[in-house]
UniProtKB/TrEMBL annotation:
The keyword Secreted does not apply. The chain crosses the membrane at residues 45-68. Residues 247-353 form the YoaR-like putative peptidoglycan binding domain. It comes from the Bacteria. It comes from Micromonospora inositola. This is Vancomycin resistance protein YoaR, contains peptidoglycan-binding and VanW domains. Keywords: Membrane, Transmembrane, Transmembrane helix. The keyword S-adenosyl-L-methionine does not apply. Pfam families: PG_binding_4 (PF12229), VanW (PF04294).
């Protein structure tokens, strides 16, 4: 629309007015003289011009009022009037309004996760109003011309939260309501493949948790944080297909391996040892041939063909590390052997693989070993095991210690206990001993290895090394330190640590008739690493459960459940440089009795 009688304003969204000619009483044409007619015409022009000026003045005033400041008039955030202000002034006003409500905004937020409710302090999880982003949102609010004059609007604040810190806090609320994901796997007992079917986890979804808590923070109601199921990428049907199409045919017959130095037969037992089915983080199951494990299974036969390179190593003698020299060798091409062997394993015929021998240098030479700086003991940890050295449980602990003894972890490397030992079965020297399955003790191969895992975890913990993965037991056992302990179960549960120091790490193990000890050797970089505990809370008492008597029934005295925090406090140069929180909630272990429930 164009404003008559005035120069059009620049094109924008300001309101415009059209003025039309106005007739006044007595202005009709008549026999007036030209002079009189001219006078009347001038009066009309003056009146019209005056009215136009008045209208223009009103419009200009309304436009100036409506468009004053960056934030549209009538805009509020949390009750603070930001309308008509520049962005700088609006930021200042909103900060002042938040400061006036600081007590209210710092009050704990009630959260409900499943059947549990807790309170979370906003400062602990980074809950805050992003003032600049909120003012930007307010400035972008409905800017229609009429609404700028007479409208009003309330703009929601832009709320931020530290998703990782919130997730860590909420996991303590989840407790026993959660469920770990069971990763799919196929394991061999002898030459019999056994499927491990996937099961979904019941856990938190960090982004959804964050949205729920942000939405509830500035209201009176609790935040309803959902627990969601997360399914592994491989289904039960896909596990069965891999068993039928690969695992079972793989061990149905031997494979012939030919080389320039002769041929050998790979028996089904060795194939079962080397064929691995591993799931990635998403639960996608994939087969591979672990040539290292295959070599171990074929040690006597391969000794006639290969010369195995030997890494330089360390042994502890006289309280000091001593270098054990390495040597070069000649070995089968592992990459080609793994690929070609995996290609023939599903077949019933044509099970022959031709392999090439290649020079093989040790991965760790004496020179490289000297550069790692492994020169002193930086930590040691001992736990006691019941039952004497001859019990199956003790023998499993000792076997795990032997498997790990002398391992060197280079700077930046991550050590995996499951990855190092592989499956702990009868063929690897492990025996049946009590293990926890579905909340009760049952016989299982490798029972007791959790005690070695706990001992190794504490040795790395007190060396100040980075904890990558561990999971405390469901029940508390007094032979372990509370919270800072770890169970293990192949392949679902692992213990991992990363060597985050600039020096190499040597794992040294030893044992007596009643103890297991793990020491970490490296170069000391911290003054001390200590643990501080919070008081125990949420204590629950065990219930009594009567079980069917039999060889698989194992009685237990039971123990109380509780929640507790442990803080790893690391000092260097006389100052605390890190205070790391570990939290866990133990379930009350039932008192298991093998026998019928007595009559009431």
């Amino acid at each position: 629309m164009t404003l008559y009688g005035a120069k059009p304003p620049p094109a924008d969204d300001r309101p415009t007015v059209q003025v039309t000619a106005v007739s006044w009483p007595g202005d009709e044409p008549g026999p007036a003289t030209p002079a009189a007619g001219g006078s009347r015409t001038r009066r009309r022009l003056l009146l019209a011009g005056g009215m136009t000026a008045a209208v223009l003045a009103a419009v200009a005033g309304a436009g100036a009022y409506a468009y004053a400041g960056d934030v549209p008039r009538g805009t509020t955030v949390l009750g603070a009037e930001l309308g008509g202000r520049s962005r700088t002034d609006a930021v200042r006003e909103l900060r002042a309004a938040l400061e006036r409500r600081s007590a209210e905004l710092s009050a704990p937020v009630r959260v409900t996760v499943g059947e549990r409710t807790a309170e979370i302090k906003p400062a602990d999880v980074g809950l805050a109003v992003d003032v600049e982003a909120t003012v930007a949102a307010a400035a972008a609010a409905d800017a229609h011309p009429l609404s700028r004059l007479v409208g009003s609007r309330s703009v929601d604040p832009v709320v931020t939260v530290d998703v990782d810190r919130l997730d860590a806090a909420l996991r303590g609320v989840v407790g026993s309501q959660g469920r770990e994901m069971t990763m799919p796997a196929i394991i061999f007992t002898g030459t019999t493949p056994k499927p491990v079917y996937p099961k979904p986890s019941l856990t938190l979804d960090p982004p959804r948790s964050a949205e729920a808590v942000k939405a509830a923070w500035l209201t009176d109601g609790p935040a309803a944080v959902p627990l969601v199921e997360k399914h592994p990428a491989t289904t039960r049907e896909e596990v069965d297909r891999l068993v039928d199409e690969l695992a079972r045919p793989a061990v149905a017959a031997p494979v012939t391996l030919t080389t320039a130095k002769g041929s050998l037969t790979i028996p089904p037992s060795a194939i079962a040892r080397g064929l691995r089915f591993s799931a990635d983080e998403s639960g996608k199951l994939a087969p591979r041939v672990d040539v290292k494990r295959l070599r171990t299974a074929l040690a006597d036969q391969l000794a006639k063909i290969e010369v195995t390179p030997k890494d330089a190593g360390l042994t502890i003698a006289g309280g000091k590390p001593k270098v054990v020299p390495g040597r070069a060798g000649q070995q089968l091409d592992a990459t080609a052997l793994s690929r070609d062997l995996l290609a023939v394993l599903p077949k019933a015929d044509g099970r022959t693989v031709t392999a090439q021998l290649k020079p093989a240098e040790p991965e760790l030479t004496e020179t490289k070993l000297a550069e790692l700086g492994i020169k002193e003991r930086v930590s040691t940890f001992t736990t006691r095991f019941p039952g004497g050295l001859s019990s199956p449980r003790s023998q499993n602990i000792v076997q795990a210690a032997k498997d790990v003894d002398g391992t060197i972890v280079k700077p930046g490397e991550t050590f995996s206990l499951n990855g190092h030992t592989g499956e702990r079965g009868y063929d690897q020297g492990y025996q049946d001993a009590p293990t926890i399955v579905d909340g009760k003790l049952v016989p299982g191969v490798g029972g007791g290895v959790s005690q070695f895992t706990t001992t190794l975890f504490n040795a790395t913990y007190y060396a100040g090394l980075e904890d990558v993965e561990h999971k405390p037991h469901s029940f508390y056992f007094s032979r372990y330190p509370a919270v800072i302990e770890s169970t293990i179960y192949y392949p679902a549960l692992d213990f991992k640590f990363r060597n985050n120091s600039p020096h190499g790490v040597l794992i040294d193990t030893s044992y007596t008739s009643s103890t297991i000890t793990v020491s970490i050797w490296s170069t000391k970089i911290y003054d001390s690493v200590k643990t501080e505990y919070s008081p125990r809370r949420n204590i629950t008492q065990p219930k009594t459960v009567y079980l069917e008597p039999g060889p698989d029934c194992i009685e237990a005295a039971g123990s109380a459940g509780f929640a507790q925090d442990a803080y790893r406090v690391i000092t260097k140069d006389g100052k605390v440089i890190k205070r790391e929180k570990f939290s866990w909630t133990y379930q009350a272990e039932p008192r298991f009795i093998c026998g019928p429930k007595p009559p009431a």
